[in-house]
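SAMPLE LOG
Freezer: B-3
Tube label: C17
Construct: single chain, 472 aa
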Amino acid sequence: MPRASNAKIVATLGPASADRRTIEALVRAGADVFRLNFSHGTHADHQARLDLIRAIEADAGRPLGVLLDLQGPKLRVGTFAGGPVKLVEGAPFRLDLDRERPGDATRAPLPHPEIFAALKPGIDLLLDDGRLRLRVQRSGQDFAETIVVDGGMLSDRKGVNVPGVVLPLSAMTDKDRSDLAFGLTLGVDWVALSFVQRATDIVEARAIIQGRAGIVAKLEKPAAIDCLDDILAATDAVMVARGDLGVEMPAEQVPAIQKRIVRECRKLGKPVIVATQMLESMVSAPVPTRAEASDVATAIYDGADAVMLSAESASGRFPVEAVAMMDRIIAQTEADPFYRDAIDASHTKPAANTADAIGWAARSVAGLLDVAAMVAYTSSGSSALRMARERPRAPIIGMTPMRETARRLALVWGVNPVVCRDVTGANDMTERAVATAKDLQFAQPGQTIVIAAGMPFGTPGSTNLLRIAQID
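STRUCTURE (predicted):
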């Protein structure tokens, strides 16, 4: 049976959700895409989980997407000789490349020459997820002398952030390249690229992936927001990684940035995931806070394609309950009349091209005739993406002969992906679309469906056909 909601759920797998019974329960609760977080676990762990997903997918009867999330560069201080140290506000503190000498209350090793190359006096360094702040007074190629602005306890290998600075780092480390090569052999559907600072980071990843998976740019650096348009043009989808954004930017700016990213992605018809701490309290509690429920609902009202659970489903005590709660919030929000008013008021004006014209016409016809379902017959997924961009009232069926395309479409707003055989012509396509709409119980005899496709069939990105069909 198809999913009832339009917005999709991405659930991270981990120690709390590594067995078949739990993953099956996550699918029943509403998960559409599973995230494999390569910051944790071994290749064998991830292969075992992906094998379970594919076996469960066959039993569930609907495509499930798999998202490989690369770790990206991790900038950390070194170790301390006597355990955690206290940094006092106003005190000097030195960072340098001498990783052989453990740190103390006056200095610490920072084994990242790329950071020192980008530092200038007045730049702030954030340590331990922003809990401590240092301000650079003087720096060179292998050191930085700073003043403690916000003090506190600092322990081994805590993270370092450099807000407002484009670091001379690739978004992929050697570990990422190894993980990516392994994931592509497994047949993952999406690859999430961490530490994206500029569009060239995506170009590098695309040269390696070569179309074998879609690319999700994780927007977690202020530098990425500064060149958002270029990144959106280069990527296939976007993740709003609000936790890391909230470390490097003032927290009060993150909601507006989230809305801007969602709006721009919707204009381009590119899937957008809102992520991080959405139901954080459900890591240890069976219910979320009211603020968290409102946070999820806000992303749905904005028209995000998907919302994501991280620790809640990977390591929390209530993984299935967290997915079920998110599914209920989505359903309740989409049932609100104001939701449809907001979505209808935020449509993007179509561009003067055939694909946009077909998408706009399909939504117009669907609204005028009150159609039961909209069908996008697609090989690459392009027709379904164009249809989803319009956020129609009627459910979307994404029919494709490509199993890989169907799995990628599991991430896309409103699309119910279906794997079908190749069609031989427009009449065959119409008959199969009608049969599928009936099988999925979206349409009954006497109702109407709208079909969009590209001709000649099998040509990616050639959406140029709109057909109206009656259900017999």
